[in-house]
Amino acid sequence: MYNMTFEELSGDYSQERMDTVARALEEVLTSALPQGCITVGVYEAAKSLNVDPDNVVLCVLATDEEDVKDVALQIHFTLIQAFCCENDINILRVNNTRRLAEILDGGGKQTGGEPLDLHCVLVTSPHSTSWKDPALSKLSRFCRESRCMDQWVPIINLPER
User: Taking each helix axis from N to C terminus, what angle separates 15-32 and 97-105, rounded to the nearest 10 degrees?
Assistant: First the structure.
């Protein structure tokens, strides 16, 4: 049985805990990228979720301040969140798309120079092996604990480097 501290029960995570979760997210993304286990973009993510939701281990929704006013994006987020909740897929929300771009590509540009749509990033499990990543386990535990406190989509601050 897992005993939660008062801070965990009230939903107040320490800055140290949040930094650990942010580092774990960075580790998961950087290790999944060379394995081809990353899907980037709202529409690409929706297609991937439709085809093989059992293969998705993490959904990252990313926004900056100006994205909060984008009604179409918020509708997409709501639908993706509902789908992920229904299919037991862990969800995190990050508030720094520039830092996410640095982690994923060093700049967030496609081959044609177009910026990547980093609003939704899926991490999938490699088909060849059962992926046992300690950082992914930390994220999964954090998401599970957050859901126990009715925080279905916890927000992570990706610190600048």
Answer: 40
Map 21-84 to HEC letters: HHHHHHHHHHHHCCCCCEEECHHHHHHHHHHCHHHEEEEEEECCHHHHHCHHHHHHHHHHHHHH
Nearest alpha carbon to residue 136 among 126, 128, 149, 150: 126
DSSP strand pairing (90-94 vs 56-62) = parallel
Q: Which amino acid is at 105?
A: D
Segment 40-62, tens digit of pLDDT: 999 999 999 999 999 999 999 99
Taking the C-alpha atoms of residue 124 and residue 154, their distance in angstroms, rounded to an integer, is: 19
Exposure pattern of 100-138 as b/e (b: 16+ CB <10 Å)? bbbbbbeebeeeeeeebbbbbbbbbbeeeeebebebbeb
Tell me the chain's radius of gyration from C-alpha atoms. 15
Worst-scoring range by mean pLDDT, 70-79, 91-100, 144-153? 144-153
Q: For the segment 18-39, what is each residue's pLDDT rounded down to a tens digit? A: 889 999 999 999 999 998 999 9
Quick one: which of 126, 160, 161 has its CA closest to 55?
126
- Evaluate if pTM is beyond 0.70: yes
